[in-house]
Each structure stands twice: as C-alpha cells, then as structure tokens.
Amino acid sequence: MHWSPRALLTVLRTVTLSEELAKQVTSRRVLIGGLTILACSAAVSPKSYTVHKFDEPIDALSIGVPTDVINLQVSAKVNREWLPWQSLELEKEFDPTLRESNLVTFPVAISEVRVRGATEAYEVHPLRVSDQPVSYLEAALTPRTRPTILLRDQWGADDSLLYNGKANTRSDEPDVENGISNGKKTEREIECEQWEKEYPEQFQTTRTVGGDSGGTFRWPLRYSPEVNILTVHHTASRTTGDARTGVERMRLLYQYHAKNRGWGDVGYHYIIDENGQIYEGRQGGAGVVGGHAYCSNVGTVGVALMGNFDEEQPTQAQMQASQWLLRRLADQYKINVSQEVSYHGKVLSPIVGHGDLVTTACPGFFIRETLTQVRKNVRSGITGNIRFPVPPWRSAVTRRGTTTRIPTAKIRLIPSGSLDVTGRPGAQTVISLLLQAEAALNPRERIADVVRSDRTIGVWQDVEGREMRVRDELILPQRMRTGEAVSLRVRIQLPQKEGTYTLTIDDIPYVLTVSGRPLSDQEKNIQEKAQRTSSPLIPSTPTRPGLLGLVPQRAKPTTVQSKGPPIRIRLGWTGDVARIAPGNGAKVNGRSLAAGSVQLEKTQAGCRASQNGTEIALGIIRIDSPSGIHTVESWDRSSNRFRGAIECQMVDGQLALINELPLEDYLAGLAEEPDSEPYEKQRAFAVAARSYAAFYVSAQNRKFPGKPYDGDDSPARFQAYGGAVLETANPAWVRAVRSTSGLVLKKDGQTVKTPYFSSDSGRTKSPDEVRWPNFPFAEVFLSKPDPWCKGLSDNGHGVGMSGCGSEGQANEGKIAEQILEYYYPGTKLESLSD
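The chain above was modelled as a monomer; its predicted structure follows.
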C-alpha cells in the first residue's frame, strides 16, 4: 500500500469521540512511509470510535491499512442519525498483496463517518461520484429486445485516472515482493509461482501498449493470444436498498479500482447492474488482460454482476443479460461452450465462477449454485430465467447494528412490496412482511431488530388486532407451528422534515424519501384512521417455505373488502324441475319460507316455485340466505351446496339456476387449485382467478353478453366452480384466497384479464398464436420460456400462467408475487376497489 500525502489530506478534520465520554481513548503517533499521522487506539472497547468529517460530501469510501490484517467498522451519519455499523474486510481475492478494504457505498451523499475497531492506523479513501445521466442518445434503461453495452465514454469513465499517479501491484502482473512487510509469501503467491513454472504458455502475452496520446498508462495494456475462459463474479457490494442508479455505482466501482486500489482502471471487462444494463469495463478492447482473478487473467475475460450474492439474489434481468453477454463473448472468441478446457492444470468448463479458478466465495451462493443452468442456457442460445435455490441461512441485524448470518433454523422474513417508500412529511403507510416458521415459535418471541436512521420515524406493529408501538424489535404475534406462515402488518409514519431516511427490519433495508408539503392535522387524522382500520392479511399455512429475498411490487395498503362485489354464476345443472333445500333464514323473493324444500319448475310464464304443493312465486325466483348454504338436492353430485342466493330464470327456453354471491366467497369455492398443490401456487392462482372473474363482472367486459349471469361453472368456458363443498375439502386454498383478499392484477389502472392453463411443452403462447385478436394488454402475454414444463404436452390454450410452471417455481421457493411477475410482467398487484 502506497500512502500518499494527498490522500491523507482528503480527510479534512478528524475528531476522536467515545460513547462513554472518551475517558479511555489513547492517542499515539505512528510513522508510516515517512509520514507521521495520528492514530487513535480503540483499545478493547468497541464503543470508542473516530469521526471523520468532510467539507464536500462523499458517496463511498474504502480504508487502507499498513498490514495484512484489518479489524474496523464504519458507520455514516444520515440526517443527524448514524447508520448501522458495517464491518470491513481486506479485498485479497484479486491480489493478495493489496491492503485496501472493500468498498462501502452510502445510500445518500454524507459528510460524516465514524470508524471503530482494533486496527490502530488506517487511511480513509473517500470517493465522490457524478449523478449525471449517461451521455448517449438512447436512454440507458429504455426497454429493448436485447441487452446493450454502454461504452466507457457513454457511462462516464474518467479517463484521467488512466494516467495520473503511480500504480500499485496489479493482479495481472504478480509482484510477490511488493508490499509484504514480513517478507513472507502468501499461499496464493506461492501457488501462482508454481503455475508460472508448470504452465508458462498460459502466462504469455502477444504485445504490450504502454500509453497513448494522453500519456503513459498506469496500467499498461497487455493482450492474450487467445481467450478460453469466461469468468463470472459478483462485486460483493449489496444493491438491495441502494437507491443509486447502476451508472452511479459503475462510476464508483471504477474509481475504487483505479484510485483506491491504485490500478489505474477497473479490473473487470464487463459489469452488469440489476436492471440488466451492461457496462464496458477495462479499456483496451478485445483480448486485453484484466485484473479480475489473481494469477488467472491471461486468457480469461471477467464478467461481474453488481451485488453480494451471498446475501441477496440477483435479478432475472441480470441473469438474462449475463447469459446474452456470455454467448456473445463465446462467439467473439470462438469458444466452444460445450467443450471443456485445461487451465492451470484443471479441467474446466469454459464458463466458470471466480471460485473455480482460486479459493474464494465469489461469485456468491446464488450464482455459484446456478451456473449449471447458465451454462445450459448459453449452450442452447436461450436467455431464460434462472431457478434460484433456497439458501441455508438468513441474515439479521443485531442490536448493535452489525449484520450476521444466522442458519435458517427458526424463521424466514420476506418483504411484500417495494423497499422504496415515498411520501409527504408526516404521512403514514403500511408495509407487510411474510414470516415463515422453520421451527415451533412461542408468542412474543423476538423475531427481528428494527433500526431507524432518525428517531422521529414512527413504527407500529399489529399484534392480535391491536397496534403496539415498536422501539427496537418486532415480536411474534401468535404461536406458530413448524411450516406455518403469517403476514406481519407494520405501520410507518414518515418524519416531519424532508430528506432521505432508512428503516432496517431484520436485514431488510427500507429507504424512506420524504418531500413536499407537510400533512395538515386533518389529513393526518384521516390517514391514521384509514391505516388503523385497513385489514391485515390473514395468517396462512404454506406447504413449502418461500425464498428469502426481494419480491415484486405488492398492493399498496388499502381497506380490503371483506366479501367483494357480487358475481353471478350459472350452474351446470340441467332439467325442467329442480329441488332446493334452502339455507337457514332463507326467503323467496323477499318472503320468509316455511320449513322444507322448494321445488322449481319450468312453465310458459317462467320459473314456478312451490313448497309442499303450494305455489309461492312465479317468474324470476330468488332464494336468499344471508348466512346459510343452499343445497340443490336434485343434482346428483357431491358439489351441490352454495352460499349466497340461488336464482331461477328461463334462459333460451331452458330453466337455469344462477348462484349469486360475493366474489371472495365464489373464489373460495373454486376447484382450480386443490390442496394437493403448493401453497404459493395456490396464492398465485387465487390472484389470477380473481382478476379474471373481476374483469368479466365489469359491465363493459361481458363474457356472456345479454345473459343474466357473469360466468358459469365450466372450466372450459369460465372457471371450475364447486361451491361450499370445495371450501371444506381445500382449507389451504381458502386461506390462499383470504390471504390475497381483494387483490387483482392491474395495468394503467384497469383490471387485467389473466388467462391461465394447465401445461405446455416449455414455452407459453401469445394471444396472436392462439388467434385471440384484440386481446386486452396483449403485451403482457408475449410468449416466454416455461422451462419448468419442458417435456410435458400442451394442455390448454397456453396463454398466461401455466400450472406446471407455477408449481415448479413454488417448489423452488418462489412466492406468489414472484410467480405472477414472471407470467404477467408489467402489471401491478392492487386493490380491486381502487
């Protein structure tokens, strides 16, 4: 590590503090590289820390140390409150001789950081980044049919860093003597020297370019004679909860490699953000040697995905972009991706993770465990979605704010909805989190720490229908058995002052953006009343736990209708005479009934209702029971019991029985997804079935125009409806319906007609393929890969969500919201009543 006076002066003012009034802080002078700096000993007290203030706000930092050991934590001040401590690590995966910590990026520009730990001497290397948009004609994130690569000048690379200053050791040119204070070589350096002796041809380059018209390069350009290995990495910096754009993070990563590591350029050849945008990294063009894998850079290309995939899951957009890029690079370098290669004595796939070359956790669990799928897709030329495994751990924030990984032994906490919350000062909103029990839990157990960046952020938890003020933890609202799940309802009140704040629940970081005119007292009262009375989601019992990670946008908090709008379903019963055993307290056309069955028969004047041989009504007959269940005794099948009302009319000269009941009760009686199916698949189908039915309940979208009903009980024409008998037979399905009560898929404020079907042979169909002209929101239903169904036969129309695909995703740990997002992209989960 080269300690520069300029870097030391970047930290303008340093103040030593202690949470215990700084009584025991020891100062000493340390001589490093000819410079005398003041080092503050943290002794053994973790509560002592040093505050570094910056006249010009910074966006990120890393810390350099003079030894091969670092024991430090950092925390930044945002809106007068300190963020949780973050532990630092030395980045040894790229070069064992470097003594620079990992990059720490802050959610907003900050002016103060504090540092604590047992490492007594260190150097803070702050970074600032421009938030200017990319400078090219087409917007960076405009949807397009295939990924694009932003060139260096397009995403804003500062080329002055290529020339200015002296470079440190670079991992493409191992220098085992540089920077080793004790004169000993690391195991990685010894291994590298051995490889150089045994495989000298794999370290040879064709040419070197030392500079251009701009000057001499800090990192000369060397070129591989051929490229045989494509290496996948993660950047190891979390993107979850980071409000910065991918372009800003790319600029920070570039500065971190070029300045703070002293390389003069970024080590990766390509970088991919969470939106699937690809950035050109290392300058020099085709064949240039990078710095992405120590002693394994000649003959390889490094592709890095932004994120820490030991802690978070990459997006499907990232995975699809990486597959597209890997295929493109394989074609460019004429790599046969189906044929193994020999490299440094190992027989490898030409597509590897960083950990396949050297011992390292990179590229993280979620990529490492899915590279087989990536290779398969690249070989076949498909840029398909990836099925992620369930990790054997969860992350949690401790009381002191540090993050720890906990084995998944008791709970899994999953956010439902966006992690970005915006509103006016003083506004309130409700967030939901799905808690899944991996072991039996007792009521009032502590389940998550709550850390807020500002003490004025109000947090309340719904516990057994009563709101409790939250201080620093969420508690379990009820006793839970292994495998059960419950939705936690948390109400948040935003601070009174404009700004950006953070609220961390467990390891889930919510970013709160407050702007605009403060709410008036009247507006606050109205909003608080609405939020207090909004119904929490009903507890549920899944058959398989969901996947820890981010989920798509979920419905905004709203007052959920308990029963929903009425729907009228024509029953499949046929005949001229029907016999009905009415429910308790039933009435016929508003008149109370005597005990006994009601007979309905076809006449020239319409339906005739009689009881005990006496006519009681003629024409259109309506048998109502507010809370009872009617039985069609003349229907020789078990599913002959129905809630709501039974109406008898003459339709096209035939006697027709129509069941009118609230939409939510109707959904509970569907036979679409019995309890033999995974619970999250049931939840996904509950939303799709509700959306489909609600679409046709609307007067302008009649399924059966001119008829006195909205749908019928035939799955071929509408939906498979079986009434109250199916409620008893499938309690998990009923819970799935209740847990999504009132929620439908919308686009542009309109309910989307959401078709679904049984199975396909590996790909869904578009409406045009099945000759459905003028299908509403046809862009939602474009044909897409359905790999979970591969090898099956086509069963159904093939448009929308497949039963085999949703089951496959649910069995992998996906939750309903993720399944719906895949099959109905571009829609939002919203309340039907909005």
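The CA atoms of residues 637 and 704 lie 26 Å apart.
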